[in-house]
Each structure stands twice: as C-alpha cells, then as structure tokens.
Amino acid sequence: MSNNTIFIEKLRSSGLRPTRQRIEICKLLFDRKDTFHFTINDLNNSLTRITNEKISLATIYNTIHAFKEKGYLKEISINSNKTYFDTNISNHHHFFDEDNKELIDLNDKDVGKVKIKKILPGKKIKSVEILVKVANNN
Question: Environment class of residue 114 by beta-carbon count within 10 Å: exposed (0-12), middle (13-18) or buried (19+)?
Fold first, then answer.
C-alpha cells in the first residue's frame, strides 16, 4: 500500500476530504522515521518552504485538530499561549528548551517513578506525562 493511499485513509477516517494540500500536510507529518514536534506556525512555514505554495492556515489548523481528535497526533501545551503537536502518540515525557523553543522527547527510562498523592473523586489517572522546562545556565 502506497503512502498516499495511507494518507488518504487517514484523512478520510478523520472526517476530512483528501485534497492535495492535506496530502502534503500528511507527507510532512507522517512520512518520516523520527518524531516530529511542531506548532501550527512551524508547520505552516515548513509547508511553504517544501511545497512552494501557500496552504491556508485554516486548512492546516483544521487538519491538525482533526488528526488530534482522531488520535493521530498528541497536543502538548507549554503555557496558555504556546501549543506543540507530536507525531509520537505514545505516553512519553518531554524537555522543553525555552531558549530554542524546542520540544525534545524524554524516555521513560530517564524518569524515576512518579507518585501522585492526590486523587480526584470520580476520576482515574489515564497517564502521567512530565514536561521539564530547561534554559541556558546564564
């Protein structure tokens, strides 16, 4: 099965029409072996550089959020106005380099046991994912 066929199936299963622009978004996100961390603006800039065409921010935004809702992407909120997306949807931790504005995977083996002492009534913990913010030593 070709990657384009996989991308078309991924788009359709997310409730999206498989347009040329959306297939280009899929190629950039999923046609790679390494994890890809990005903001909507990062993705927009990369798409413009790679495709030499302007894909509307609305198309990018709607595609990314449909993929997130379907479980193809993970959303990582850094603060109230900065959100990254991750193509690695497994439960895992991250460093956030505040100087370079870069999200970096942190493996489970690099984090000791985490103990949560508070329980919310009627809720169960689905996962624990740690975000470690780092900056230069100045």
Answer: exposed
- Check if the beta carbon of residue 131 is closer than 8 Å to that of residue 94: yes
**Which option is the CATH number for 3-85: 2.60.120.10, 3.30.70.2750, 3.40.50.300, 1.10.10.10?**
1.10.10.10
User: What does the angle CA 77 – CA 82 – CA 83 come to, to the nearest 5 degrees?
Assistant: 45
pLDDT at residue 14 in the model: 95
Question: What span, in angstroms and rounded, lies between the C-alpha atoms of 75 and 77?
Answer: 6
> What pLDDT does residue 114 have?
87
Q: Please write the tens of the pLDDT for every residue from 77-108.
A: 998 889 999 999 998 999 999 999 999 999 88
Q: What is the DSSP letter of 59?
A: H
